[in-house]
Design goal:
This protein has 2 helices and 5 strands. With about 90 residues, the chain is of the alpha/beta class. It has a single domain, classed as 3-Layer(bba) Sandwich (FAD/NAD(P)-binding domain). Strand 2, helix 2 and strand 3 form a beta-alpha-beta unit. The two termini are about 20 Å apart.
Length: about 90
């Protein structure tokens, strides 16, 4: 799980980190063993807290699909436990 929780002030680093993590796991040849889910309080992927910039929605959704990164939007993080995160619709 990678992403941003409700109240985050800057969303871009979470996207960057997820792409860096994906690349690193591929270099180590273990990416297929690590499912990735991007969780964000944003209403859609690529919103960036700004209502999107150009076609960030389409570009980031496409990139995440190619990298097999699933996403959950409008997420409110309720609780984080070892190996488990509980989210609800924001």
């Amino acid at each position: 799980m990678v992403g941003t929780a409700q109240g985050a002030s800057c969303y871009s680093p979470a996207y960057e980190f997820s792409m860096i993590m994906d690349t690193d796991l591929r270099k180590r040849k273990i990416r297929d063993k690590v499912p990735m889910i991007f969780v964000t309080a944003e209403p859609y992927v690529g919103h960036l807290g700004l209502g999107g910039v150009g076609d960030t929605k389409g570009l980031l959704e496409s990139e995440m699909r190619q990298r097999h990164i699933r996403w959950i939007t409008n997420a409110k993080v309720e609780k984080v436990e070892e190996g488990k995160m509980s989210v609800t619709d924001a």
